[in-house]
Amino acid sequence: MFSEWAAWAIIALPLAAFAINAFIVRPLGAPAARLAGYVTVTALAVTLVLSVLALMAVQDAHGTAGYEPHLWFAVGPFDMTIGIFLDPLTAIMLIVVSSISLLVQVYSLGYMRREPAHGGHAAEERAVHAGAAHAHDAHGHGGDAPVGDGVSREHPYADYPRYFAYMGLFTASMLGLVLSSNLIQLFIFWELVGLSSYLLIGFYHWRPSAAAAAKKAFIVTRIGDFGFLLALLYIFSHRAELMAAGLNPFDIRDLHQAAPLLGPGVVTWIALGLFAGAVGKSAQFPLHTWLPDAMEGPTPVSSLIHAATMVAAGVFLMARMFPLFEESATALNLIALTGGFTALFATSMGLVVHDIKRVLAFSTVSQLGYMMLAVGVGAPVIAMFHLFNHAFFKCLLFLGSGSVHHSVHTFDMRKMGGLKRWMPVTYVTVLIGAISLAGIFPLAGFWSKDEILVAAWEGDTVGRLVFLFGIGAAFMTAFYSFRMIYLTFHGEFRGGIDAVPMAERIPDEAHHAVHRHESPRVMTTPMVVLAGAAVLSGIVANAPFDLGIVPAHWFAHFLEEEAPHFNWPIAIVSTLVALGGIGLATLMYRTNAISAEGMALTLKPFHVLLSRRYYMDELYEGLIVRRVLYRGVFQAADWIDRHIVDGTVDLAGWLGRNTGRAMAQVQTGQVQLYGVGIALGVVVILLVLLTQGGG
Amino acid sequence: MLTTIVFLPIAAAILVLIAGRDARVARAIAVIAVIAELALTGILFASFDRQAAGFQFVERAPWIPAFDINYHLGVDGLNAPLVLLNGILGVAAVLVSWRITHRAREYFAWLLVLQSAVFGVFVSLDLILFFVFWELELIPMFLLISIWGTGRREYSAMKFLLYTLFGSAFMFAAIIVLYFSFPAGERTFDITALASRDLSALLIPTALVFGGFLVAFAVKLPLFPVHTWLPDAHTDAPTAVSVMLAGVLLKMGGYGLIRINAGLFPNEMARFALPIAVLAVIGVLYGAFIVMRQSDLKRMVAYSSVSHMGYVGLGLASLGASGAALTPVGLQGAALQLFTHGTITGLLFVAVGLIYERAHTRHIPDMGGLMGRVPLIGIGFMLAGLASLGLPSTSGFIAEILVFLGTFPVFGWITGAAAFGVVLAAGYILWAAQRTLFGPRPARWDHLRDASAVDVAAMAVLIVPILAVGLYPRLLTDVFSVGLVPIISRFG
């Protein structure tokens, strides 16, 4: 039995890490700063233990550990309850979130800290220069090189605790989200996840690009959240039916039984509203544009966002509410189509980008598309299985890209090359991640991707269509995964940040220099662990046969689903397709049998379209936000307010003044006199009242 | 108790005028007075019986017996939180005035008078007494803006005055009509007495009397299209006055709408609910559109107030529902929005004022990267901004979601449109934050000093209720409920 207190502690521990780092460690300044990382790591280690215990308890209980919801506040017919909903789905998510987050925090201990080997005077030196605009001053190459993406020039000691405080908040929000028993409670944590990612994407807030990316992430996801909010309102407007049946309109368990009461029409609208929220959070078309920009945060943050928190929230929400959605075929078809299209669409943009983190970002968008596709074809468990596998290898890939950055201080793959010689551990682990992402047997990515394709194939017309999308995406995914491997680790080294002209560098990274070396063990160890998971998570968690300790199809059975069956033709086709993608990448970027530049030239219009990401940023920001809204609607409203609404008032005042010129003598400009006048006015009004009243 | 709360600031103001020749003495007296007020209002709020309906701490004495005008004060669940709000805002306003040196004695005296007047408005249960306090508030406001303000301060002060007087004239007429509509002997100005009377047959159509109050309160709230005094008054007022204006003065309008328009005229309220809802939603969206175009920080916050006070109007309009759709949820949201907007926008103005005091400009394009120099002010601004955009775990979220939940079943897509305000709010708040706090910092701001301990205290006194109510809404919802139930019970 897993007590409810322990479940709350899963949320409270990382939250406590946030509070300790924000309110104790950070104000203490330099001497305490290095404690911050240990605070968060410790909290998450305990959280992971609790999560494992929760999983075991759920396993033993054969299903949901039910806890009574608590009343948070009540207004009229609206009982706002909060509580813990711990079922197999939640238990899986707890493991994913807490294990990934713990590994990322451990990695961050190394990534975010300046290495003593680089000279201990870095901070003092920076403190002396605080405030001075020395952006391009490349002083002290060796002595002043902060490890990581850079540190604030003014608060060198504040950033490290700030980072681990935000990470604690981020993890706590995501854990709270998956444990929520009430849809509004879930929405609260949902928004807090959004806030934390805003803070972390904008961590280097002095960089314009980071500030812009953070804002973009928050606002774009909030457009989706508007749909979520409308769904909540719509549910509440149907509260009468639900409450008559003794259900709380926002309790998730109650909503699972609500489908027959509400009927498919109502459920469709609820599902579409919630799906809009998921589209924003999980970066599905057409709200995917924030995710590629979200690279501006420190790399471990990207790793966490892309693997376990934030983007996973959308897929989780779909799986969580699936028992309700089942009622609406319309909604499911739309989810499948959106997911399938996104999978294909995002991979195409991943083909041409040069920034290693952006390649990974597009791959995340597309893998999330696969998961949505799976939900849409009625296989939420397979979606969760893919989320589970994807979390490990995607986290690994991002940590790998951070490790590479550690050496070469750039994310531009055109400036990399040949790094496998200096970074063998990074190379091998990233290679494992890439193979898993490409979906090659028997690595993790293969199993879940294959099950998704099978589920789609066995669906109806929509299923067949999205199956084709999925196959197409699989080819391109395999292609760019290996394009990334070849550009980064093979061939000749192309100079790293040394090859970037000073003018093009980010100011607070300008003084960095290439130092090719393997990352410290504190960073490589989490990568090795994740590489192990990327190999094994698919085969072990949902093995097609009994493994002894783990029974066959444990994952599917745990989530109370029938075991998916293995479809040989589809497995073979998808493997061949993936190998084809890898082969093409090899020809273009390894053996150079096909010239990548030549290809780009031949397909120039297409290449430009992909590089500009289908002009969607231009459409949203340039056309809609700047022209239609800012210079259109907003300007019109402003003009109307000044000239028409206020103009009428001023006109009335002007008329009043000119008819009352005789009063001008009184206007001596002495405001005190006005004051006395008003006071007298009040008295006069009272006197009038008294005399006129007659009584 | 209530008399002490209402008149202690005036007494302190007199003391300031007598003894406050030295600015520091004046300030010290003011600080002691507002802290005492906060303590008193806190005790009042804590000892308020959350189970009992009706008015508590009632004080009643004949004032002008010939007309049955009484000195009648009392608090119920509706105004008790607003009294506390005024206590909180008073502290923030005085602390943020710490460095006032220009005619400090008069400044603090008028600020205290202002607080007294607002207390008076919130606790008066006699219409004449209510009206006197309502007018009394104008004097300090007018003087504070026109003497200690900036920019076109005299224009703005006069505009504020004329607008309010315009509304007051209607209110006064309505009060008089209400009084003389009854035969001698039954005439009364008492709000509690009127609340239990049938007001359907008055000297003039009841709708006009209702409208008289509505105009006065709509100007104060403000409701579109009578809001244009607000941006000017806010922009040119000194920081403390902006804080009081956004924090409590606007709430007088919302309070009046609930206490008098809804409390005395349920039939008319229900009849005019839809037009009020439409004006409120226009205010929400139109206000938010205009915010996006502002380059002056204070003007930006002022228009965001126009947008956010629209939610109060919308929540109030939920009373137009009938049958099962009639719930206290929307009205509770409106009442909560009064309180929460007071603290949130108060905090926004404190933060903006602190920036202005240091940078001597409020022009957003001139700023940038201030987070690196003034992180404490920046954190205050961000917290207020996040609460303003309705982030869960702040009180702003609770108020907004209750307004939406309460009105969606009534107005459907009108509420849906208003809910889009949360996306717009995210847009303007985060865009403003990006341009002022983040990004590269012009060298001219390299020497700004961060918030002092006093400044931090001014922000903290507002941050505490924002988070407390956001995390534990029952602090307020239980209290508001007992106050709103009698009002709601006359609808439907």
Question: What's the topology here?
Answer:
The complex is a heterodimer of chains A (695) and B (492).
Chain A: H1 4-28, H2 30-33, H3 35-61, E1 65-66, E2 70-75, E3 78-82, E4 85-86, H4 88-111, H5 122-128, H6 159-179, H7 183-201, H8 208-237, H9 239-244, H10 252-256, H11 259-281, H12 290-293, H13 299-307, H14 311-320, H15 322-325, H16 329-350, H17 356-376, H18 380-408, H19 424-438, H20 444-457, H21 461-489, H22 521-541, H23 554-558, H24 568-589, H25 596-602, H26 604-611, H27 616-659, H28 671-693
Antiparallel strand pairs in A: 1-4, 2-3
Helix pairs in contact in A: 1-3, 1-6, 3-4, 3-6, 4-6, 4-13, 4-18, 4-22, 6-7, 7-8, 8-11, 11-14, 11-16, 13-18, 14-17, 14-18, 16-17, 16-21, 17-18, 17-20, 17-21, 18-19, 18-20, 18-22, 19-21, 19-22, 20-21, 20-22, 20-24, 21-24
Chain B: H1 2-19, H2 23-47, E1 56-64, E2 69-75, H3 80-95, H4 104-123, H5 127-136, H6 138-148, H7 153-180, H8 191-195, H9 206-220, H10 229-236, H11 239-264, H12 266-271, H13 273-293, H14 297-317, H15 329-359, H16 370-373, H17 375-388, H18 395-411, H19 413-419, H20 421-436, H21 453-471, H22 474-488
Antiparallel strand pairs in B: 1-2
Helix pairs in contact in B: 1-2, 1-4, 2-3, 2-4, 3-4, 3-11, 3-15, 3-21, 4-5, 4-6, 4-11, 5-7, 6-7, 7-9, 7-10, 9-11, 10-14, 11-14, 11-15, 13-14, 13-19, 13-20, 14-15, 14-18, 15-17, 15-18, 15-21, 15-22, 17-20, 17-21, 18-19, 18-21
Strand order, biggest sheet of chain A? 1-4
Spatial shape of chain A? globular
The tally of helices of chain A reads: 28
Percent of residues in beta strands of chain A = under 5%
Q: Most extensive interface: pair and counts?
A: A-B, 75 and 80 residues
Specify the biggest β-sheet of chain B. Answer: 2 strands, antiparallel
Q: What is the number of E strands of chain B?
A: 2
H and E string of chain B: HHEEHHHHHHHHHHHHHHHHHHHH
What portion of residues of chain B belong to β-strands?
under 5%
Q: What class do helices, strands and sheet pairing of chain B give?
A: mainly alpha
What share of residues of chain A is helical?
Answer: 55-70%
Arithmetic mean of pLDDT of chain B: 93
Number of strands of chain A: 4
Identify low-pLDDT runs of chain B.
Answer: none
Give the oligomeric state of the chains in this entry, treating copies of one chain as homo and distinct chains as hetero: heterodimer
Structural class of chain A: mainly alpha
Q: Compute the separation of the termini of chain A in Å.
A: 78 Å
Give the tally of structural domains of chain B: 1
Radius of gyration of chain B: 21 Å
Q: What is the spatial order of strands in the main beta sheet of chain B?
A: 1-2
